[in-house]
Each structure stands twice: as structure tokens, then as C-alpha cells.
Amino acid sequence: MRLEGYPKDVTLRDGASVSIRPIEPDDGEALAGFYRELPEEDRLFLREDVTRPEWPEEFIRSVDFDRVFSLLAEHQDRVVGNATLYRSRHGWSAHVAEIRIAVARPFQHHGLGTALASQLVLHATSLGLEKIVAHVVDNQVSAKRAFEKLGFHKDAVLRGHVKDIRGVTRDLVVMSNDVSHLWEAMAALMADYSPTMGE
Amino acid sequence: MPKTEIRVGGLGGQGVILCGQIIGRAAAIYSGKHATMIQSFGPEARGSACSAQVIISDEEIGYPYVTKPDILIVMSVDAYAQFAPQLKPGGMLLFENELITVDGKLPAGARALGTPATRFAEEIGRRLVLNIVMVGFFAGTTGLLEFGAVERAVRDSVPRGTEDLNLRALRKGYEYGLEVVAAKA
């Protein structure tokens, strides 16, 4: 499936050029290579064990552009970032999506995470979602700042929720971006009513 | 293009007026036609009967009221019951076919083409955009306006950040409209 607007070329703050595109069925090996090269410390904060040999294929099979939408960032034909939007089509949080992002160390702090998150926020809005959440460990200052730039704010703090590679307990911050105002504006436009009627 | 009279009818909150505005904007701004629109709605913000009268023409329009529409777009049972008898003989009815059942109210020779616009809007992600699906269906079935002109009118008319979903709704209605016309040919 080819989505309009992709691949999207992005120039990072250090001048490096990165191409962002939706993940494709034959990206399994490249994705596995990317996650293998991530330092263990970075992999610790991921929800799944991405080093399992079966994981890349399982993950790619789950991508359906509706419930799971995943982007790859490539630099010189190597995957340097992966960002995924997860949503549920059922239940009381069907209006909410979650963003998860992983960026290769040499590309961190250069704006790649922001660029990937920005694409996912746009995609979430285009799906009609109202709220987007991201989980960030309390000491990931630049990640928090990147999300704040995109309109996210601290929604909740789960005290002592994660342990880093040295066994240090840290807080997990739930950040959220409420984009429901966009749809409130659309609903207002469709009210078929004039507040000045009769004046 | 000969003078074409269009009436859009539905309930307040379905975006009836916006539907008329987009058609008028696509004609007047992006197709070089003349267009007029008259809107009417009840005192309630939502749920009251509501309609828009749109005329598009190559010539200047001297009288902006629609008396016998060539095209009637309806999104509610009440709007169908009220406006269907006014349709011009040989005119075209475009209706939401999971909300409205077409009966004997239509004049002789009228064509009725339906679309499950609400379901399409829900599948796309927002029930709210059923009116945009109807605009696309209008463009696909009538061929009165180029799709690109309608697309630009939608882009201009909806809030920033909602364009993609609205344009997908428009395209869904348009493509379904083309299919319906092809199937009836």
C-alpha cells in the first residue's frame, strides 16, 4: 500500500538527510538490524523483546495502516528510526492512539524523533482520533521536549514504574496531545445554525 | 452549463449548509461559474429541519431561490418527505440510502441514486463527515463540477488539521458515485 506524501525527506539539525516512509512487508531484516544495533539501555524501554528472531515478521504482519501504522526512517539505505502508532478500533479508548518511537543513537537529539512523531500525529488526526499518548521515562528530557513541541503535555506520572539498566527505579510520564478541538471546530462548522439569527 | 438548481436538505448538525457552501464555492471560485446560495434552518442548533438552496450557472443568476430543483440532495427522512415532491420531473435525487427509503413521492422520470454515506463516514473515522461523502457523491453522479474543483473547495472550507479525513470522505463519495452511475448505465 502506498500512502500519499511518502517517502518524506527530512533534513536533520546536523544536516543529515533522512527519508521517512511507511514500513513494507520486506523490511523485516532491516528492522531487525536496526533494533539489534540499539544499545541494550535503549531496548529496555521498549514494550517488546525486539531481539527475538520472530519479532520483526510478527510485527510487520500486525501493521495494517489502521490499527497499527508504522514508519521507518532511513539514512543511506540503513534504518535509523522506527515510529509506530497503535490504536484500538473497539472499546472505550477507541478515540485514543499511542505513539512509540525508537531512534538510533547517532541520530538522537537531531530532530529525527520529532519528525517521526509529527508524522504520526498528522496520521492520527487524519484517522479522526481525538487523543494521542506517549510514554516517556522521566529522565528522557529531550524526548519530553520534542513531544511538548508537538502539543503534548504531561498527563500523568506513574511513580517508580520502570527500572533502567542499572536497576534504578524511574518514573514513567504519560504525555498526551488532545486534538479533539479540531473535530469540535468541524462540528461547529456543521451546526447549521447561526447565533446571530433573528438579530 | 445550463442553470442548475440544487436543494440540500437534512437536519441541523448534519452539515447541510456546509454541503451547499462547498458546492457553491467549487462552482463559483474553482470552476468560473456563477453561484448563489440561500440557507434556512430552525431555531435549534441541532436536529431541526435545515436546507440550502444552491444555483449554479454559466450565466448570471437573477433570482436565487430554488423552486423546482434539478438536483435534490437529502440526508434525513423529513427532508426527503418535504422536498421530494418539489423535484423537477426528470430531476435527480441523491439520498442517504441507509436512512431514507424512496417511495412514491418522486415526480415522473426522476432518477434516485443512493449512497450509504453515514456508514462510509464511520468507516473513514468520523460520522461527522457524512455531508462531505454526499458532496463527493454529488460530484461523481452529476459530473457537473470537476473533482479537483470540489477537492479545493473542501480543503478551503474545513478546519485545518481535518483536511485529510475530509478529503478521503469526499473521494469515497465520489468514487461510489462513479460506480453507481456506471452500474445504472
Question: What's the helix and strand layout?
Answer:
The complex is a heterodimer of chains A (199) and B (185).
Chain A: E1 8-11, E2 17-22, H1 28-37, H2 40-43, H3 55-62, E3 68-75, E4 78-87, E5 96-103, H4 112-126, E6 131-137, H5 141-149, E7 153-163, E8 169-178, H6 180-189
Parallel strand pairs in A: 5-6
Antiparallel strand pairs in A: 1-2, 2-3, 3-4, 4-5, 6-8, 7-8
Helix pairs in contact in A: 1-3
Chain B: E1 4-11, H1 16-28, E2 34-41, E3 49-57, E4 71-74, H2 77-83, E5 92-96, E6 111-115, H3 117-124, H4 130-142, H5 147-157, H6 163-184
Parallel strand pairs in B: 1-4, 4-5, 5-6
Antiparallel strand pairs in B: 1-3, 2-3
Helix pairs in contact in B: 1-4, 1-5, 3-4, 3-6, 4-6, 5-6
Helix and strand composition category of chain A: alpha+beta
**Widest sheet: strand ordering of chain A:** 1-2-3-4-5-6-8-7
Counted by DSSP, the helix tally of chain B is: 6
> What portion of residues of chain B belong to β-strands?
15-25%
Which CATH top level class of the domain at 8-134 in chain A fits? Alpha Beta
Largest sheet of chain B: 6 strands, mixed
Let me know the number of strands of chain A: 8
Oligomer: heterodimer
Helix share, percent of chain B: 40-55%
Terminus-to-terminus distance of chain A: 53 Å
Shape of chain B: globular
Which blocks of ≥5 consecutive residues of chain A have pLDDT under 50? none
Query: How is the largest sheet of chain B built, in terms of strand order?
Result: 2-3-1-4-5-6
SSE succession of chain A:
EEHHHEEEHEHEEH
Portion in strands of chain A: 25-35%
The CATH level-2 architecture of the domain at 8-134 in chain A is identified as 3-Layer(aba) Sandwich
Average predicted local confidence, pLDDT of chain B:
93
Query: Whole-number radius of gyration of chain A?
Result: 18 Å
Brief sketch in words of this structure:
Chain A is built from 6 helices and 8 strands; from the N terminus they run ββαααβββαβαββα. Chain A has 199 residues and is of the alpha+beta class.
